[in-house]
Design brief:
The complex is a heterodimer.
Chain A (H helix, E strand, L loop, with lengths): L1 H6 E4 L4 E3 L2 H15 L5 E9 L5 H13 L9 H9 L6 E6 L2 E13 L2 E9 L2 E5 L7 E3 L14 E2 L3 H7 L1 H6 L6 H6 L5 E5 L1 H9 L3 E4 L5 E4 L1 H5 L13 E5 L16 E5 L1 H7 L7 E7 L5 H13 L18 E8 L2
Parallel strand pairs in A: 3-15, 10-13, 10-14, 14-15
Antiparallel strand pairs in A: 1-2, 1-11, 3-16, 4-5, 4-8, 5-6, 5-9, 6-7, 11-12
Chain B lengths: L5 H13 L1 E7 L2 H17 L6 H20 L11 H17 L4 H15 L5 H8 L9 E4 L6 H8 L8 E4 L10 E7 L8 H4 L3 E9 L2 E2 L3 E2 L12 E2 L1 E4 L16 E2 H4 L5 H9 L11 E9 L3 E6 L5 E5 L9 E5 L8 E5 L6 H10 L3 H21 L2 H10 L7 H8 L9 H11 L5 H32 L2 H7 L1 E5 L7 E10 L4 E4 L7 E2 L8
Helix pairs in contact in B: 2-5, 3-4, 4-5, 11-16, 12-15, 12-16, 13-15
Classes of the chains: A alpha+beta, B alpha/beta.
């Protein structure tokens, strides 16, 4: 996490300055909650803040970068093969083969004379079977594949050098122990943001930040490069977070039916509406003192506080910025 | 609308860090004395204060007192005080004297005191501004008022004394985004304003200017018990340099609590008053379920609560694409803006739908009106429950009191299912034309949908092009659509929605009316 805070700069294209203290606070807070490893309890952090501007995207950046140290899948082929075998039939995947990427649908495992195999249907009339040692070439994709074509040509694999060039900002920002290649290639829902879609999009995609390379050059990028919000990326892009608009009537299922590790509520509306659906995630609740339902959300947080389990909650990540109040406690997992 | 750049957000945090809040107590002996006596008198009335005679009398005096405290305008400013006000007050006084002779003398004394105050040649607002160190740069100072209806008169009052743009007169919603000032002058006690004005300040200097006879707090407690980073926002109180000491100092008991002064609007009470006398009269079949929506600027409107009836709103907190949308009554919330016709009543969608239907309009509308009036007649001649039973017997699957009331409403076009429509046609004697009428109602329905789409589009264009800060600041704004569509529509900020459902005559729906002195309950 410290890498992110130390290496993130505000960049106007002309001038560069380190991100302000309040921004570092949100990065550190996200990182702190992401580092928490107690699966028995749910962590709740509530904040009263003077403005929601950038608070959610910075907090989520802290979550995502910190969790980038955790591999998305088993590293060893045998374990990965077993993990794939447990996924439901028809799970959309891509297969990397002969410098091309092919779409497919998982179609279960079988045992042959040569050993265990996992099947991927790649065309309506073609299913390929892979042994454990090749299973690392199969990747679960966020793409919604319902029907496969009769014939597919495959799309070329992006060369590592090209990938590195595209992700320079990310690679300089991720903390030590993270694999930027894995980070940019594989999906996982680390963080859900619940707020106003257009504002979050603008903050994540339209504000330029900078990260310094080891030789001191400034590499520009946006927080979207790190957050990899599914809704703000192209259809086939890998993701690390999702945004849910508070104007939706109900909370759509998260990608792949996975639960986010951390839910960042950007404002009272999403918290009041959807907190019950996200009991399995840790919560960071950002309540803008100026917003319509601030008092209602504070009252609900107080009710949650009454239901807390023993424990001290999290320590504040450094000096709390002016105008910010923070409460932290733990609840039994939902 | 929140801060839109990192530098704006920076400034917001800087304001929280630097803010210095000062409570500046001002005084004007005659006015102070009048206010204290008004409080004493209202308390001495005890339960009688709830009587309509006293409510009207006290309401006028309280409104005068509140407006002066909330604007610091001159005591005889025409927006606050007029000859008619005094005449109405004297009329109330005469009635009260007859009904409650024991209270006649102090009541008369109060009216005389009000008349004396109104003769005072003072300009409290200008006086206080001269004692404060106002920033010379443009738009760095804001004058915060509780009531948006007082913004324009205060701007007019300031015009001769300050450079154009030097002081921005605002309401509290302006202090929610990324815009920050050097100084905010808060007119009235801090209790009148939401805590964020002080706990999430948008200025490094805040001066609270209030009359000393109002009791106020001296700080704001943390939000969360035992939170990290919690600090009490507190301020020191100083008497303004021009404050004069009155001969009759108020005791703590005499001082009004700030929250007592501010009209706590009881929407349900306003409904009760608005409908008084109308419940016993009129045709029950001509009523619809409605809720009262209180609007910024002491106005209110009844909105139809029937299923499927929607109203256009502007929601500044929503995504741009859903900022203008149609919502049912249950979706209308405080701080949204409801869009109503500026002149007259009626639904602008109906006007546009009629235009779309062209020369067929009269025939279709006549048929719509005909079967609905026959249905209403059937209800009047028997009862709602009797009509429901008969409709079910004639093949309707969902006839109940709510649905039948909805079907009678002019805002409803036709039933959702044909079987219910056919049952109504059998009941009202149009069985042989059932299919024909169903098709006609379908055309009206289709025209309404097209009209709604067109108005949405036009409104969205207007809202996109308008200055949303002005809408936020003034609490209302006119939108001029082509006259063929709807003419002038007005967006009003919603203050509250009544919890109780009321049965309201159709003619009162969507028609704004002043709430007046009901806001100042006795």
């Amino acid at each position: 996490m410290e890498t992110v805070a130390r290496n993130l700069y505000c960049s106007s294209g002309v001038t560069t300055r380190p991100v302000p203290h309040w921004a570092n606070f949100y990065l550190a807070l996200g990182s702190l909650v992401a580092r928490r490893a107690d699966a028995r309890t749910q962590c709740v952090v509530g904040l009263a803040i003077p403005t929601r501007a950038y608070a959610a995207v910075l907090t989520a950046t802290g979550v995502v970068t910190t969790r980038s140290r955790i591999p998305t899948r088993p590293v060893r082929a045998a374990e990965y093969f077993e993990w794939l075998c447990e996924l439901p039939i028809d799970t959309p995947v891509t297969v990397r083969r002969a410098n091309k990427i092919w779409k497919g649908l998982l179609c279960g495992c079988r045992t042959s004379s040569s050993g265990d195999l996992i099947g991927v249907q790649q065309q309506s009339n073609l299913t390929c079977w892979f042994p454990p040692k090749s299973s690392l070439n199969i990747q679960v994709t966020p793409e919604n594949i319902r029907k496969l074509p009769k014939k597919q040509k495959g799309r070329p694999v992006v060369a590592v050098a090209e990938l590195a060039e595209q992700n320079r900002f990310v690679s300089h920002l991720l903390p030590e122990g993270s694999d930027w290649q894995e980070f940019t290639t594989y999906s996982r829902l680390d963080c859900a943001l619940l707020g106003t879609m257009s504002l979050l999009r603008e903050e994540a995609r339209e504000t330029t930040f900078g990260a310094k390379s080891p030789n001191g050059d400034l590499v520009e990028g946006t927080l979207q490069d790190v957050l990899r919000v599914r809704e703000f990326a192209g259809a086939n892009q890998n993701y690390r977070s999702q945004v849910f608009s508070v104007t939706n009537r109900k909370l759509p299922g998260t990608a792949g039916g996975l639960r986010p590790a951390v839910a960042v509520f950007d404002g009272a509306a999403g918290f009041l509406k959807w907190r019950e659906d996200l009991r399995k995630s840790d919560w960071i609740v950002l309540l803008d003192r100026t917003e319509r339902y601030f008092d209602d959300a504070v009252a609900v947080l107080h009710e949650e506080y009454i239901n807390r389990v023993d424990g001290d909650g999290l320590e504040a990540p450094g000096h709390v910025p002016p105008g910010v109040e923070l409460i932290s406690f733990e609840e039994a997992r939902g | 609308m929140r801060a839109s750049s990192l530098s704006e957000a920076d400034r917001v945090y800087d304001c929280s860090d630097e803010v210095l809040i000062t409570d500046r107590v001002v005084s004007q002996p005659e006015f102070d004395q009048f206010c204290i006596e008004l409080t004493r008198f209202a308390r001495s009335l005890g339960e009688y204060a709830e009587d309509d005679l006293w409510r009207s009398f006290l309401g006028k005096l309280r409104r005068y007192r509140f407006d002066l405290c909330a604007s610091l305008l001159p005591f005889n400013h025409p927006v606050i005080y007029s000859g008619e006000t005094m005449q109405a007050l004297r009329r109330d006084l005469r009635r009260c004297e007859m009904g409650f002779p024991d209270f006649a003398a102090p009541a008369r004394a109060l009216v005389e005191q009000a008349a004396v105050v109104a003769q005072l040649e003072a300009e409290p607002l200008i006086d206080i501004l001269t004692t404060l160190d106002i920033a010379g740069e443009l738009a760095q100072t804001a004058l915060l008022l509780k009531e948006t209806r007082l913004i324009s008169p205060v701007e007019e009052e300031l015009r001769p004394y300050v450079a154009p743009g030097q002081i921005e007169v605002i309401n509290a919603s302006r202090l929610r985004g990324g815009r920050c000032y050097q100084q905010v002058i808060v007119v009235g006690p801090s209790y009148w304003f939401r805590d964020h004005v002080f706990s999430a300040p948008r200025a490094s200097t805040i001066d609270i200017v209030r009359y000393g006879w109002v009791r106020d707090r001296s700080g704001i407690e943390p939000v969360f018990a035992g939170s990290i980073g919690a600090r009490t926002v507190s301020w020191s109180s100083i008497r303004s340099a021009f404050a004069e000491s009155g001969g009759n100092e108020a005791t703590d008991a005499d001082r009004s609590l700030a929250e007592e002064l501010h009209p706590r609007v009881d929407a349900d009470q306003v409904v009760e008053r608005a409908l008084r006398g109308s419940r016993e009269n009129g045709n029950p079949a001509d009523r619809v379920d409605a809720r009262l929506v209180l609007l910024d600027g002491d106005e209110a409107v009844f909105l139809d609560a029937s299923e499927g009836v929607t109203t256009y709103v502007i929601d500044l907190e929503a995504d741009p694409e859903s900022r203008v949308r149609r919502v049912g009554l249950e979706g209308i919330e405080p701080d949204m803006f409801v869009i109503l016709r500026k002149y007259g009543s009626g639904d602008y969608i109906v006007t546009e739908a009629d235009r779309i239907m062209g020369q067929e309009t009269a025939r279709y509308r006549e048929v719509q009106s005909l079967w609905k009036s026959r249905l209403r007649k059937a209800v009047m001649e028997s009862s709602l429950s009797n009509v429901c039973t008969r409709l079910r017997g004639l093949g309707s699957g969902i006839a109940n009191e709510g649905n039948v009331r909805n079907w009678m409403s002019e805002r409803n076009i036709r039933t959702y299912f044909y079987e219910d429509f056919a049952a109504i046609m059998r009941l009202v004697g149009f069985e042989d034309r059932s299919m024909e009428f169903w098709a006609m109602m379908g055309r009206i329905d289709s025209a309404h949908r097209r009209a709604a789409f067109r108005i949405s589009k036009l409104l969205l264009e207007q809202v996109t092009n308008c200055d949303l800060h002005e809408l936020e600041r003034l609490g209302r704004m006119d939108f001029e659509l082509p006259s063929a569509v709807g003419g002038v529509l007005t967006a009003y900020r919603v203050e509250d929605v009544s919890s109780e459902m009321a049965q309201v005559s159709r003619t009162r729906i969507n028609r704004t009316f002043p709430v007046g002195d009901s806001l100042w309950p006795g």
